[in-house]
Amino acid sequence: MKIAYLTNCFGTQSHTFMRREIRALRQLGVDLTLYGIHKDEDGQAADAKDLVDETHYLYPVKKIATVSANIHYFLRKPMDYLRGLWKAFTSPEFSLPRRAKMVTHFFLAAPMARHMEAVGITHIHAQFLNVSSSVAMFAAEHAGIPFSVTVHSAGSYKAADTVGLHQKLQSAQFLIMISHYNVNYYDAVTPCRDKSYVVRCGMNLDDFTFQTSPRLTALAEGQISRKTRLLGVGRFVAKKGFRYLIEMADLLKQRGVDFELRILGNGPLDSELRTLAGQLQLGNCVTFLGQKSTAEVRAEMAQADIVVVPSVTTDTGDMEGLPVVIMEAMATGAAVVASTHAGIPEIVITGETGVLTEERSPQSLADAVCQIIDKPSIEMLNRARKLIEENFNIAIVAQQRQDIFRRHHQAK
């Protein structure tokens, strides 16, 4: 069993869970070869260099190799090649440009398929239902080997980066879903429940020292401590809901809550969010810290009292999966406030492991923060850590993945 692992780029700051997964599988003896769509030169995570350097990339496209590989597969099995091309073009998409993108991926996957055959790949596994799974699907078709996908988030099938969704779900040998919500969502798109497995994103718990918030502990004991430190972490994109996080801060300020909100991240909405904070005159209680390394994020997490995750479904249907920041907060000992969104309620249970809020509701977020400050529960933080230990331990998660790969390899 020799597996190709394929994603856009393994060096992205937010993909720490993926790097943990690769290293844990290799420790179990799983033979992985890494493939990427492009090499991310900017914003590469400090712990990613070795994986980034060993990855075989699709871009920049080598034209001669691409033409040669397509001719090779056409000559080897012309009818199979033409059927695959026709299938790509007639994919159940709603526009000609999206079908053209599928055909482009079909052609570009050929040289990657040849490389996979040359090194003896027996299975291709893609992360995300974006271009990486398109290339994985067509490379598998060219090479005559199975492929699978880890499905991280739900969302509209009309999203720009999810072309060929129905075809991918139908063609994959199996699907690894990070939440039960995803299973239900995609089974409604096209029946795929019977080949879907729920496996969580794994965490190396040795990297997360559990220590309940000093502020919440002091409040629970009836003592006075420093102001409450709130933390938001993520890319500044619509589905993260950071607009509502800033509006929540304005409500807390109006209520006289003694707090500071620190926000880690960057992205296309950076200017918009900073402008909103300025308009609301939140400069004395909201701080934008920009993009930070994994180590710096963990240091901030260790100092946070409450981590707020205001995820939303966007106007285009884009959604979160199960944000890693929630698991990291629970593992560290911070309280979690999160919106009732996608798979989040599977781990954030109000009063048990955190507090759930309404989507797009600054009022609900502010109420939840005040609830935790007014009635802090150290038992809730302990239960949250136990949930992470039982369901998100990277050693357990990697073993689950290996078992799935083995089962399907043996069934061939």
Descriptive report:
- The protein is of the alpha/beta class.
- It has 2 domains: 2-202 and 393-410, Glycogen Phosphorylase B (Rossmann fold); 205-391, Rossmann fold.
- The chain is 46% helix and 15% strand.
- The protein is built from 16 helices and 13 strands.
- The chain has helices at 16-27, 49-54, 63-76, 78-89, 96-118, 131-143, 165-171, 180-189, 214-220, 242-254, 270-279, 294-303, 324-332, 362-374, 378-391, 394-410; strands spanning 2-7, 31-36, 56-57, 123-127, 147-151, 174-177, 196-198, 228-233, 259-264, 286-290, 306-309, 335-339, 355-357.
- Strands 3-2-1-4-5-6-7 form a 7-stranded parallel sheet, sandwiched between helices. Strands 10-9-8-11-12-13 form a 6-stranded parallel sheet, with helices on both faces.
- Helix 4 (78-89) runs antiparallel to helix 5.
Query: What percent of residues are in strands?
Result: 5-15%
Shape descriptor reads elongated
> Taking strands numbered 1, 2, ... along the chain, how are they ordered across the largest sheet?
3-2-1-4-5-6-7
The helix-strand sequence is EHEHEHHHEHEHEHEHEHEHEHEHEEHHH
Using DSSP, what is the number of strands?
Answer: 13
CATH class of the largest domain: Alpha Beta
Q: Under CATH, the topology of the largest domain is which?
A: Rossmann fold
**Whole-Å distance between the termini?**
11 Å
Report the major sheet. Answer: 7 strands, parallel
Coarse structural class: alpha/beta
Q: Please give the domain count.
A: 2
Give me the Rg, rounded: 23 Å
CATH superfamily of the largest domain: Glycogen Phosphorylase B
Helix count, DSSP H or I runs of 4 or more residues: 16
Helicity, as a percent range: 40-55%
| CATH architectural grouping of the largest domain | 3-Layer(aba) Sandwich
